[in-house]
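Entry 14. Structure prediction run on the chain below.
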Amino acid sequence: MAWIRIDNRLIHGQVIETWIPYTNAKNLLVVNDDFADDALRQQIATLAIPDRISVDFIHITEIMGYAQSNNLQDTLIIVADCDDAKRIHDQGFSFDSINIGNLHYAPGKKQLCDHIAVSDHDQECLKFFANHEIILDFRCVPNQPLQIKGL
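Output returned:
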């Protein structure tokens, strides 16, 4: 089963140094339309990824075709925000849990913990997942305890 993470930053040090080893991922899949269209960002991000880890960048609408053509057993899937996660779910890609790793603060957002700020829309999306019995895992790094102020 693939591990799914929401992180505004997509690929960065915490993903490479903590989440890839924690999940034993051999593949990194970034599912985000903006990133899939940006070859320069992909090249820059790829520089930080160890050679032993394969990486792909796809559009959200490509998730089901990608899943049918690839074994996602050892894959860490990263999306940028709650909308991306909801859209891959709406495409028919099912998952039992989702790690909410980082959502930046912006005016109008509610700060749930140091690394997660949510808009009303984000809260609705997370409640949708909870109502569909998808486990919400609010951790920035694997060894971090869960400390949420409430949804």
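The CA atoms of residues 70 and 103 lie 28 Å apart.
Filed with the rest of this week's runs.
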